[in-house]
Design brief:
With 231 residues, the protein is α/β, with parallel strands linked by helices. It has 7 helices and 13 strands.
Amino acid sequence: MILVLDKGHGGKDPGACGNGLEEANLTDDICNRIAAKLVPYDVQVKFAPRSDSLNERAAFANDLGADYFCSIHINAGGGTGFESYVHTDAGDDTERIRTMLHSTIYSGFLAGQGVVDRGKKRANFAVLRETEMPAVLLENLFIDTAADAEKLKDSSFLDGLANEIAYGLVVALGLQKKAITVTGAITIRVAGKVLEGKEIDDLTWAPVRALAEALGKTVSWDEATRTVNVI
């Protein structure tokens, strides 16, 4: 399974701007977070080139033989909320995936954040028209609306959004977790304390609370965004 993430705008085009924010920076951040959250799954995540040519972005996905294309954007124009787009001539499979993705993102996170659901829409956007695989474009809040912009400035909000987009892709595309190879227990020494960790897929894993507390840090859990905070 190959998934192409398209970071809306970039190149010489910052995209929509407002309230001290630029769309290109936000889409870069969100897509990087989505990709990181999909690492445990059996999917190759590729980023479309940040070209000012939309056709080049679509061609990149076509040449890869990608299975799905997801374009991430921030809206503008004085409105508020979240909406998703597929092409005007999109078939049943594209619509089915979009519906699952949209519903998961909105009900799983955005509704609880007080974000307006602007609905599932269709448009003749270039990246939707020129891609040869099912494709969706997500418009995530309005950069020029103060209340939306405040959310977009909040890293925990962006992480929650990225988490739900990633989970929506897992559900809609039927992604499975990669097989995990656990080599065995290892010993970790931190500030004079001994912790037990594990080696998994050539990476060392340690219990975050024990590790943080050994370093004199405080750990908290945010259920809404499923985020561990170490302070």
